[in-house]
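Q: My collaborator sent me two sequences in one message, no labels, and asked for predicted structures for both. Can we handle them in order? The first one she listed is below.
A: Yes, handling them in the order given. First sequence, followed by its structure tokens:
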Amino acid sequence: MPGPRVLVASDLDRTLIYSSAALALTMPDARAPRLLTVEVHESRPLSYMTETASRLLAELGDAAVFVPTTTRTRKQYQRINLPGPEPAYAICANGGHLLVDGVTDTAWHQRVTARLADECAPLAEVREHMAATTDPAWVRKHRVAEDLFVYLVVERELLPEEWVKELAVWAENRGWTVSLQGRKLYAVPKPLTKSAAMREVARRTGVELTLAAGDSLLDADLLLAADRAWRPGHGELADAGWSGPTVTALPERGVLAGERILREFLRAVRER
């Protein structure tokens, strides 16, 4: 029997899975959905999806090539325990690592790092600039992810908007992009994209249709590269009113948006 002919590349955080702060349970308590814990960190539950979403994801894993697609490092991704079949492919570090049956594809990683060396300012320069211009009053952590990009954990209410704008311009001139997602501010090389990794998985699997979803600026290239895509009613893209010719903006916010996205994926798989 031929395998699935549809590839679904979906962002995880604030798209399919949600921290307690991002759940947006605005309904009366008695009507709140039952939640399933899908990530534990340091013995504490960290991320959730609705029980309904978990069933939908399990169905999707059987019907399509489901590819978790995240800016998380490999270690952070491996904390997540998603329902359904174990994905054969996963995209981590914003496309810097392609996992095949849980193992990094070394040749892919080498291709990515060679391109970054050719086209972007070095990681060390960006890291040093951010260290020199930030203030401990609003930065809690400086992190380098997989020797590919930088992110800060910030106090969002204290973060100066003007500094973010200035950093974005500085980074743009050096081939990098800046994205603010919740309490994390990312600086990522422009060629480090989820879309490139998605195209590689599509090539390898020979699928006929690609679907995608995501909520942040770092997902925009992925959504535009897919044949059809969805974004939730929250996040950077929603705040900017961003869309694209094949991108559907959904009204749902929070964990219920994850449920709606999975319904849309399954509908598209079954309609083809």
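Q: And the one she listed second?
A: Here it is, processed independently of the first:
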Amino acid sequence: MLTVIGEGLVDVVQRSSGIEAHVGGSPLNVAVGLARLDHPVQFIGRFGRDAYGESVAAHLKSSSVMVPQGPDALPTSVATALIDDDGAATYMFDLAWELPGLADRLPFMLQGTTLVHTGSIATMLEPGAAEVLAAVEHAHPSATISFDPNCRPSIITDVDYARRQAEKFVTLADIVKASDEDLEWLYPGVDVLESARRWLSLGGPEGPALVVVTRGAAGPWGITAAGEAEFPAPKVEVADTVGAGDSFMAALISGLVDRGLDGAQNRKELRELPAESLRELLAHAAWAAAVTVSRPGANPPTRAELNHLELESLERDAESAVEREAALAGDDRRNADSASN
């Protein structure tokens, strides 16, 4: 069982062509992404007894995400996304974030959980952030922890506070993913890859085993104790970038779970992940993000869709390799003919 803790909300997307509403929230999107990749997953968050809350519950149910706690009396959180002509999203938020009584229910809720993921608003906005940190501390002795800060400067404006919060979770996490924009905001004037390398060292032998940086069109980069790797971003026509990082995060987690690296008992093996395996994970996650940016809203791929795309990519790479070998062979023959003449 995989567990995702964090905010669920409704994205109200405003484009030049009109307004649409989609269920979202970074952790919720990760939960849906994991379920679509055929992992049993539960979502611990909150939503209200209102029309938006009903849409959140229906979305989770339709994606086979388990929800161990129902709606509460607070309004469902709303994020308004303004989409520019290039497909990039800018957000404004109306939020209610708290999980009262979570600590008392955790031993039951987390039974059988091998991995806990959290991040974004849930780890920054009080009073819920303290409850999420306590949940991660509770889960750490038995479960892999993954974290994505997914910073929202329009909500958490104090960068010093945000940096302290992020580093608390990084220290507890085994797997960390951040965007280059996250790291540029948290550590202004510092090269983003250097910031990621520093995060790898936080917590010493109990800190992160893997830190990944997404860099938009430049493609993802990652680091483990065994080395560094990167993968070029797949070229697709972009509808918008909503949920792309969350699809990447879900597929990154999925790839590690598929390798049997979830669970605290596998921390040593996770820390020894070689650079070539890291590159394969980055490729897997990058293709998942590519699917999401190719269609509107936070709409992550199914396992069948992702497998199909990856197979097509491998076939194209094989065809290109054959063409390159044929071209080189032709050059060799021409050079030999020239030499004989």
